Each structure stands twice: as C-alpha cells, then as structure tokens.
C-alpha cells in the first residue's frame, strides 16, 4: 500500500493541483522551490511546515483563492491563552456536575436491582456531563425566553444525566427516579429509557436515540426556523438549535447526509457538539485513527466551522473516557465541537 492510501489520500495534496496551469515564469518558480529546499535543510521540516502554513494563511488573507486546508493541527482550535474567562463559579459548577453524574450512575445502577434488572447506559453521560452542564448553565435558553428558546437534541443514551439534573432541580421525585425504564410496571409511571415526546410529553421535546435521528432533524429544524423567519411567520432570530452526538453516531448516513445543506443554507443557528470519547457505549471503536481529525476534515470540507477542544490528562496520567472533562467555549457560527481523551504535544 502506498503512503497516500486510505484516509490520508484525502488529506494529501493532489498531485495534479497545478499540473494543468501554465507556468509563466519557470525560473522564478524554481527559485521559490529552491528557497523552500534550503529552508528545509537549514531549519528542518517543522519550521518549513510553519512557513508554508503561514504563507497559505497570508494568501487567503489576500483573497488569492488558494484551497483551504481540510484539517488543522491536532490541538485545541482556541488556545488556552485566548479562552474566554469562565463566566460562572467553576468550583460550584464542578461540584454540582459531580452530584448529577453520581445520581445518573446510581439511577441506572438501581434499575438493575433484583426483580427489575433493566439497567441502562452510564458511560455516555459520564463522558459528556461537562458539555451538557456548561450548555445548561451558560448557553441554552428555556422555552420562556423572550426569543422563543433553544431546541436541543440530546444524545439519546445520555438520558440518565438529564433525569439526574431534573432530580437535583426538584422536577423529578426519588420515586420517579426509581422507575427508570419501567414506564408500565412502576406505580405512577416510570421514566422512559430515551428521549421521546410521546412517552414523556412534559419532559422531552425531540426523539433521538435511533442514531442519526437527532443530527439530521436538528439540521432541518434549523432550516425550518429560517423558513419561518424568512416568511415573516415567526421571529426565530434568537433561537439556536443544538445536537449532541457521539463519534460513533457520525458513522450513520443520516448524521452526515445533510451537512452540506446546513452549510449551503448558512445555518449559523445550528450547533453540533460531538463527544469523541472513542467508545461506543461500552463497545470498541472502529479503528485506530484520529477520529477528531477525520471528522474535522469531513465537516470543514462541507463548509462548517469546526472548533476542536481536547482534554490533556495531568502529566503521567491517562484519562479513562468516563473521567473526561470538556467544556465548550464561545460559539458564533455553525460548528462542531470535539473532545478526545488525550491530547498530543505539538511543536511549532
Ligand atoms: C440506528 C441505531 N443503531 C444502533 C443503535 C444502538 N446504539 C445505541 S448507542 C450506540 C453506540 C453509540 O456510540 P457513540 O455515538 O460513539 O456514543 P457514546 O459511545 O459516546 O455513547 C449504539 C450502537 C441505535 N441506537 N441506533
């Protein structure tokens, strides 16, 4: 297999990039190439790569129409030096998050008790609790918001976390929490396994757990909001649509099937938050590649703005995915946000 086979062939520069163009000054072209060669020799590949990226950026700033890169370095899009200050009380929020995460785990654990034995999923929410909590505390607008509120497509098997938060808020009772996945058998009714407005009309707005359903519906919801606004039927200018999904869910045709529509329509009222925890519930991932880079390439290629956020474990330690702590920073455009259990050092 050649080096350019597999996924990498899409990232490498195509050989015929300029072959069909006319070189008006071959000698000058050769001089430019010779300077790159000597830079490579004198300063090494890292510096030469930096200069090339810098020139590319400069060319784009000058509107030269040079094709954009489909992947960026395997580091956070927003460096820590440019992160916004945390707008809340980080210590209290962390404490509440730990309580919510614990309650979610215990609710699932208790659903496995003798005589019930239905269990549920723990890892999905455990690895995305920070994403949701930051969303709830700092981004999501409720239905009573003057602008009409946000529409959120929760990752289906993260439902225990939403119940656990509602419990802490006093919206669900201990008795209800004990009825997880027992809608028919639990006295007074139970909590549905996954989000579904028909099963719990007062609680869930959208059904999501069939993988792919959330993301594609989110795109069409955002599109429809634009339609309502454009036709003067409803002012939706202050409403955002959010879809939370996993890296595994991105393998579904429905997840990626309409992303170009979102970009073409300029849906900057839409956010995908993709938790790349390298697990599928408790199952294996599909390969050993860098899923974040792969997804970045797909979404950027389709015209999305991608913000990567990765978690670096304290030195010498490895995070287990269930211990991930990720938070979303400021959003302005259509985007996906990604997280991963381990960051890599990069040198400029
Ligand atoms: C269409 C479809 N196929 C299979 C499933 C069963 N299923 C539920 S979650 C899941 C894995 C999800 O993996 P990922 O998106 O990476 O989420 P995470 O591991 O973070 O929970 C599967 C296969 C499903 N819900 N829908």
Provide an overview of this structure.
This protein is 37% helix and 7% strand. By secondary structure, the protein is α/β, with parallel strands linked by helices. The chain is elongated, with a radius of gyration of 23 Å. The two termini are 30 Å apart. The chain has a 5-stranded parallel β-sheet. It is built from 11 helices and 5 strands. α4 runs antiparallel to α5 (123-139). The protein has 2 domains: 28-67, no CATH class; 80-338, Thiamin diphosphate (ThDP)-binding fold, Pyr/PP domains (Rossmann fold, 3-Layer(aba) Sandwich), CATH 3.40.50.970. The model is unreliable at 1-11 and 319-348 (pLDDT under 50). The structure holds thiamine diphosphate.
If you consult CATH, what is the topology of the largest domain?
A: Rossmann fold
Count helical runs: 11
- Small molecules held by this entry: thiamine diphosphate
Runs with pLDDT <50, length 5+? Answer: 1-11, 319-348
Counted up, domains total: 2
Strand runs, count = 5
Q: What is the name of the CATH class of the largest domain?
A: Alpha Beta
Morphology call: elongated
Helix content: 25-40%
How would you briefly describe this protein structure?
This protein has helices spanning 8-11, 26-43, 45-61, 90-110, 123-139, 159-168, 174-177, 213-230, 253-256, 259-264, 291-301; strands at residues 151-153, 241-246, 270-275, 305-308, 335-338. By secondary structure, the chain is an alpha/beta fold.
């Amino acid at each position: 297999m050649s080096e350019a086979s597999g996924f990498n062939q899409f990232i490498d520069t195509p050989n015929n990039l300029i072959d069909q163009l006319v070189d008006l000054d071959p000698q000058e072209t050769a001089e430019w190439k010779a300077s790159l060669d000597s830079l490579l020799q004198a300063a090494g590949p890292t510096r030469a790569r930096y200069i090339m990226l810098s020139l590319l950026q400069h060319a784009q700033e000058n509107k030269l129409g040079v094709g954009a890169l489909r992947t960026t370095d395997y580091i956070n899009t927003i460096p820590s030096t440019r992160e916004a200050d945390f707008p809340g009380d980080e210590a209290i929020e962390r404490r509440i998050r730990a309580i919510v995460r614990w309650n979610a785990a215990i609710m699932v654990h208790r659903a496995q008790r003798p005589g019930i034995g239905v269990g549920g999923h723990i890892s999905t929410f455990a690895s995305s609790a920070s994403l949701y909590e930051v969303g709830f505390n700092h981004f999501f607008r409720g239905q009573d918001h003057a602008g009409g509120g946000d529409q959120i497509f929760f990752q289906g098997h993260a439902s225990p976390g939403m119940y656990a938060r509602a419990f802490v808020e006093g919206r669900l009772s201990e008795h209800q929490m004990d009825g997880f996945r027992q809608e028919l058998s639990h006295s007074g009714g139970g909590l549905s396994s996954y989000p579904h407005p028909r099963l719990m009309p007062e609680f869930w707005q959208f059904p999501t757990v069939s993988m792919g359903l959330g993301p594609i519906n989110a795109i069409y919801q955002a599109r429809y909001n634009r339609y309502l606004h454009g036709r003067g039927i409803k002012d939706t200018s202050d409403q955002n649509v959010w879809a939370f999904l996993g890296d595994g869910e991105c393998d579904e045709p429905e997840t990626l099937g309409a992303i170009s529509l979102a970009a073409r329509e300029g849906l900057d009222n839409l956010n995908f938050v993709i938790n790349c925890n390298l697990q599928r519930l408790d199952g294996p991932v599909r390969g050993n590649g860098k899923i974040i880079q792969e997804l970045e390439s797909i979404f950027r290629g389709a015209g999305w703005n991608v913000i990567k956020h990765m978690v670096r474990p304290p030195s010498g330690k490895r995070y287990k995915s269930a211990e991930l702590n990720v938070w979303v920073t400021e959003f302005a455009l259509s985007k996906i946000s990604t997280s991963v259990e381990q960051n890599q050092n990069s040198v400029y």
